[in-house]
Amino acid sequence: MFTQNAILSDGRPFADFITLSLRDGANLKADFLSALRQLPKLIATVNKAEPTCQIEWLVAFSDQAWSQLFEQQKPSALVPFTEMKQAERHFPATAGDIFVYVKSERMDLNFRIAKGVADLFEPIAEIIEDTQGYQYLIDRDMIDFVDGTENPVDEKRVNAVLIGDEDPNYQGGSYITLQRYVHNLNKWNDLAVSQQEQVIGRSKADNVEFSGEKKAPFAHINKGKSTDEAGKEIPMYRQNMPYGNAIEHGSVFIGFAKSPEVINISLRKMIFADEQGHYDHLLKYTRAVTGCIFFVPPADFLNTL
User: Fold this and answer.
1) What values do phi and psi take at 198, rounded to 5?
2) Is-contact 233 156, C-beta < 8 A?
3) How far apart, in whole angstroms, are the C-alpha atoms of residue 183 and residue 287?
4) In the chain, what are the domain boundaries?
5) 187-190 long-range contacts, Cβ below 8 Å, gap at least 24?
6) Known catalytic residue: 147?
7) What is the pLDDT of residues 162-206, one digit of tens each?
8) Is the pLDDT of residue 88 over 90?
9) Rounded distance, CA 5 to CA 298, Å?
10) Are 14 and 111 in contact, with CB atoms under 8 Å apart?
11) Which residues contact 115 (CB under 8 A, 6 or more apart)?
12) Which position among 16, 141, 147, 280 bears the catalytic label?
């Protein structure tokens, strides 16, 4: 079982999130396989510029793309992203067939790979989203709170993310849920620190999770978790990154799990009010503008192609 290396590894200071949409074409499968074979060579060529920059990457595919590109049976849990909407809150479902994720120590090398991806896949697909993420204040989102605190590590990460016996044909693969959020930092920064902490459920300066009654029922730390019917947390692995400039800025949410339903549970908790009317109040200050689900095949599946 060989896993694409960007699934389980820790984050890097820079990442590129590249979403492509397939074009119509009679030679789609043949041209796709030609581009796919060239992709590792592109990464290797760029890596020669600085072998220590730790380039890691993966390629993943949507439900719609699978039947267009592969003869093999579709992974058992691969489905399109489902639009979610309540009141002014909206998680849109947007286009996306192929997803390439690159992370490394250098933004310029990520750019060279992204440009190479555009050139390789140009006969069959066009890039519709290319978002450059970067480390912000070491480990914080642009709202200035630490992000990814509760990610599983080591064996717990493997168990949370990688497909096992539940889908034998694709052991070592994983599912990605991808959303890009645009923050309203002016509105967020109008809040007092104590109000921001209530929205998140953690202290801002030292990143200590609130407990008991101090943690608001609408806190992001509660609503952003995936839980089963007994209330036990179902782990996922987030590799979120800030992105943007002074005009538009926010966060790319990229969540890995052995089933997309794990992350769907948390998204529904965030956006839909519970019986007491509570939803994730962070959504007052940020909005999702994209939403896709992709399957990351195991590396040996890709190698057989």
Assistant:
1) -65, -40
2) no
3) 7
4) 14-304
5) 187/284, 187/285, 188/143, 188/285
6) yes
7) 999 999 999 999 999 999 999 999 999 999 999 999 999 999 999
8) yes
9) 10
10) no
11) none
12) 147
Closest CA to 216 of 193, 230, 200, 240: 200
Q: Could you tell me the two tokens for 160?
A: 């949370």
List the structure tokens of 161. 């993310």
Encoding tokens for residue 136? 């912000």
DSSP the chain: ----TTTTSPP-SEEEEEEEEEPP-TTHHHHHHHHHHHHHHHHHHHHTT-GGG--EEEEEE-HHHHHHH-SSPPPTT--PPPPEEETTEEE-----SEEEEEEES-HHHHHHHHHHHHHHHTTTEEEEEEEEEE--TTTB-TTSSB--TT---HHHHHHHHS--TTSGGGTT-EEEEEEEEEE-HHHHHTS-HHHHHHHHTB-TTT--B--GGGS-TT-HHHHTS-B-TTS-B---EE--EEEE-SSSEEEEEEEEESSHHHHHHHHHHHHS--TTS---GGGGSEEE---EEEEE--HHHHHH-
* pTM of the shown model: 0.96
CA-nearest of 211, 199, 218 to 270 is 218
Pairing of strands 125-134, 84-86: unpaired
